[in-house]
Design a protein that fits this description.
Length: 83
């Protein structure tokens, strides 16, 4: 699932120069880590909805912790798919 999420990030955010190995699964996705921004978060959440049929709702979910890293995002998706 980790590599699947990394590939989703690369594809959905149009980052062809990035390799799976370039993304640390525990590093922050925003700011000092991968350097994503709020537009990237929106694009990524739309890609997650499309690929996994999971709705991300800022009013009812702690999106900051879900989107913290590839690992936290992967854990969240696995949890949601198991429901």
């Amino acid at each position: 699932m980790i590599n699947e999420i990394k590939q989703l990030i690369i594809t959905s955010l149009n980052l062809p120069d990035l390799k799976l190995s370039d993304i640390d699964e525990n590093a922050p996705l925003f700011n000092d880590g991968l350097g994503l921004d709020s537009v990237d978060a929106l694009e990524l959440s739309l890609a997650i909805k499309k690929q996994y049929n999971i709705e991300l709702n800022a009013k009812t979910m702690d999106l900051k912790s879900i989107f913290y890293s590839v690992k936290t995002l992967s854990d969240f998706i696995k949890e949601q798919k198991g429901k």
